[in-house]
Design brief:
This protein is 27% helix and 33% strand. It is α+β, with helices and mostly antiparallel strands. Strands 2-3-1-4 form a four-stranded antiparallel sheet. The two termini are 22 Å apart. The relative contact order is 0.26.
Amino acid sequence: MISAIVLIHADVDKIPEVATSLVEIEGVSEVYSVAGSVDLIAMVKVREHEHLADVIADRIGKVPGVTATDTHIAFRTYSSSDLGAAFSLGVE
């Protein structure tokens, strides 16, 4: 699974509508409304690298109200739930 974090700038008046549209896109697992230099953060998970362009450039970038994106592709994913599952299986 390939994961990407997409930082999204959106029209301020359309943030809720943009977030709702984004989360309906196949490959977008979560959308967060955040404080800071961006308006939304979308978590994208796809099976093949080529699908990133389909989801990010062809779908996310074309949602009405999205003004700019900045994509970060994850090399590895670490989470406390993943570590807990590994320890319960005896993985070291």
